Amino acid sequence: MLLPDPKPGLVVRYDYLWAHEAVAGRDQGKDRPACLLAATDDVVRPRYVVLLPITHSPPAGEVVGIEIPAKVKHAMGLGDEPSWVIVSEHNIDEWPNGGLSPLPGRPDVFSYGFLPPGLFAKIKASFLDLAKAKRSSAVRR
Asked: 34 lies in a domain?
């Protein structure tokens, strides 16, 4: 099993734990695509990453998301339904971690690939704006 190097913009399969689930006492989430936003330096141990969930549910209320264009989703194998990268909450976890899982039907593949640089820049900027405004929830795993 070869895990990918944690580089910003990488989309992996991960058991993302929503903030409301963590508040309710859960410690495991649902396997879903997640965008790796940032990683600590590779010489630091343990190494930590920031992961943003990708969901088919449109953002509502205080939830902020960036829609992934259909062309990008298709190229990455993320299906045909609309999807959003949620930027108003995130998980912080060690890398590697037990929450990473292989893609369905591909037991040795753990990533969908990388988001295009322009889309990733938009996601990162939105996340940072919300974090500065203290409108982002973190779940430490």
From this structure: yes
